[in-house]
Amino acid sequence: MSLESIQQQVAAHPRSTRELEKAVGKHIRRLFPGWLSEFIVFVIKLGWASLFAGLLLIGMVLSKAIWADSFAVHRYDAMAAYAVSLQVLFLYFRLETFDEARVIVLFHLTGTAMEMFKVSQGSWAYPEAGFLKLMDVPLFTGFMYASVGSFIARAIRLFDMRFDPYPPFWATLLLATAIYVNFFAHHFLPDIRFVLFPATLILFFRTKVWFHIGDNDYHMPMVLAGALTSFFLWVAENVGTRTGTWIYPGQNLLDWVSFAKMGSWYLLIYVSFVTVTLVFRDALITRQQTASKMASPDQIGDKSA
Questions:
Q1: How far apart are CA 147 and CA 153, in angstroms?
Q2: What residues form DSSP beta bridges with 210?
Q3: Does pTM surpass 0.85?
Q4: pLDDT at 95 over 50
Q5: How does pLDDT run across 109-158, given as a tens digit for each residue?
Q6: Domain ranges, ordered by start, for the chain
Q7: Residues 6 or more apart whose Cβ sits within 8 Å of residue 13
Q8: 210-254 pLDDT per residue, tens
Q9: Quick check: 234 and 190 in contact, CB under 8 A?
Q10: What is the DSSP annotation of 135-171?
């Protein structure tokens, strides 16, 4: 398949990213051998799933590079307009479904609530001025949490992910609630992270993330996926602090964020994932159901990107 044929397929389905994903996947498989093409498709899908988060980070970097005090609009306010515009465009071009948008709303609300509390406690600060700030928190910050939800939701769809064997749903809700409450409560009560970390292992130790590339199924331990995701979020957080978008007490712009923050992100990943499953319950099925689905006629030979 040539690049011209990819363009023709996309033109024939201007509002369907699924067609674009399939066309890119087929093109890559023609160019590279099987194992290498699978890896390249995996990386592309991963980047495609994190598109919202990546564009937010690009916005932080570029705005920091070009913004001046003489500009009529504050950088934080421009970032808020940028984030809203991204969300509208994602929905218009069907880069996100409305179910995924529902997830983003949940993340925006819970993330903004946490931001306002943490900033009031001096955990970190947003040093720049802005009109669109509430309790010293720029309103675009909710989209930073929403980008995590967007990534998880889009990854579930793009990789046709299934989680098996999945713990009792009520137990995952209890864990996510305990983690979220502890982010607030540890300012006044003993920090129970020493209980929450092993709790994630106990609940999800047997759970595997099954994902689909072409005609092949792969899996990864859920705990490992959470650890890897927390590392990349820590890297993204360093982009945020080095652009001065937010800062921690006593931190200079060139200082690395403490590795301990990866632990916070690791726990927050489980809150994020459970929040997503409130909408995407179909992914929580048994391996036998997964095998049956993958063997259905609409899956075999699909070879989507």
A1: 10
A2: 162, 219
A3: no
A4: yes
A5: 889 999 999 999 999 999 999 999 999 999 999 999 989 988 998 899 88
A6: 32-294
A7: 19, 20
A8: 998 877 899 999 999 999 999 999 999 999 999 999 999 988 878
A9: no
A10: TTEETTHHHHHHHHHHHHHHHHHHTT-EEESPPPHHH
